[in-house]
Write a structure and sequence with these properties.
Shape: rod-shaped
Oligomer: single chain
Strand order of the largest sheet: 3-2-1-4
Distance between the termini: 46 Å
Radius of gyration: 43 Å
Largest sheet: 4 strands, mixed
Structural class: mainly alpha
Strand content: 5-15%
């Protein structure tokens, strides 16, 4: 086998991609999900900032204010903490929901909708420390490590920049009230989210095309794999050829079994033979029960002669019937007149064979429409 057959140079087939998706292998870009989550979080906080920060101020105030009795009663303190925790949860819940939806949207934008039970099935091989080390030091693992370091640097830089920008306000926190302090932290969070999202947008714009390219590159196939897949889907060409040959042979046998029951066999006289049958009570028109060329035509003629089926030499009609009528089908309307003369001759011939008298005249120059006879060149 040539080395070129072992190299993965061929694009993945649709079946290969479908199998990969069934196993949970889809292109993913964490950077896009992170970018969308931070960007949407900043937009949501900006939109509901008035309500959100008022609620958070109230939560912080309630968590810091409690009576003497609550301090010495564990049940009362627990109840108060539950109320504060419930209020905090209800306040941040809309933001968390939007963050989850944004993260999922980032995943589906790259991979599309895909659910695979295999992806969530526990795999003991993943618990193998050696496999974990190999993943870390693989090209993929090192790439993820570089991206993580880069993201950490970006987030640290942006956080430091925002803190430096708000340094004077932060120094005055001790003299601020509770509500202004919460609003200050909220504004810093929104600015941080927006700056980080803007930075990650560039990283996501690079990462998404790279992940798509890497995904399809990993699914590439060798020429031998493509051949094997074709055999699995379409079947081995040699086996299919043998099956088609057997099917043709069986069809030919069934066809030859119908020749003894035919009313007449029209020949040209050597290259083509077409057997016709007409049952006025069951058929709307004469039907082709067998046809063939060359050796098959010779076999039809010999079988017809053995069973006393009349043979009629009519080259134009034989060629037209062979070209325009299939086995089991009624003759085309354009040949009704010519075949009617043939059937009339056969009925007269059968009557002569049974009752005697004058033999019928063999029909000549049967009317075959121009264009239906392919001519002697078809022989």
């Amino acid at each position: 086998m040539a080395d070129s057959d072992l190299e993965k140079t061929e694009p993945a087939s649709s079946r290969r991609i479908s199998q990969a998706r069934e196993e949970g292998q889809v292109p993913q870009s964490r950077e896009l999900g992170t970018f969308l989550s931070l960007f949407v979080a900043a937009i949501v906080l900006w939109t509901i900032s008035g309500w959100f920060f008022q609620r958070m101020s109230a939560v912080v105030r309630d968590s810091l204010m409690f009576g003497r009795a609550q301090a010495y009663q564990a049940d009362m303190m627990t109840h108060a903490l539950r109320e504060v925790a419930g209020s905090a949860l209800l306040t941040v819940l809309p933001v968390f929901v939007v963050l989850i939806v944004a993260g999922l949207a980032g995943h589906f934008l790259v991979s599309g909708w895909n659910f695979s039970s295999k992806a969530v099935t526990p795999d003991l091989m993943r618990l193998n420390p050696l496999n974990g080390i190999q993943r870390i030091f693989s090209y993929s693992g090192l790439g993820e490590l570089v991206k993580s370091i880069l993201k950490s640097v970006v987030i640290g830089f942006v956080g430091a920049m925002v803190i430096w920008k708000q340094r004077h306000e932060l120094l005055g926190l001790m003299t601020m009230g509770l509500a202004p302090g919460v609003f200050l932290f909220g504004r810093m969070a929104m600015e941080s989210f927006l700056y980080i999202a803007a930075s990650l947008a560039i990283l996501a714009g690079i990462d998404v095309p790279f992940q798509l390219w890497r995904y399809y590159d990993q699914l590439k196939m060798t020429k031998e794999e493509l051949k094997q897949e074709y055999k699995e889907q379409e079947g081995d060409p040699q086996i299919k050829a043998r099956i088609r040959g057997k099917q043709r042979e069986m069809a030919r046998r069934r066809m030859m079994q119908a020749v003894p029951k035919a009313d007449v066999v029209v020949t040209n006289p050597t290259h083509f033979a077409v057997a016709l049958k007409y049952d006025a009570g069951k058929m709307g028109a004469p039907t082709v029960v067998a046809k063939g060329a060359d050796f098959v035509a010779q076999a039809i003629r010999e079988l017809a002669a053995e069973h006393n089926v009349p043979l009629l030499e009519a080259p134009p009609l034989a060629r037209a019937l062979y070209r325009h009528a299939e086995v089991g089908e009624q003759i085309p309307a354009g040949l009704y007149t010519a075949v009617a003369e043939v059937m009339a001759y056969i009925y007269q011939l059968n009557a002569f064979m049974k009752q005697g008298g004058l033999p019928p005249e063999t029909p000549h120059d049967l009317p075959v429409p121009e264009g239906m006879d392919p001519g002697p060149q078809a022989e």
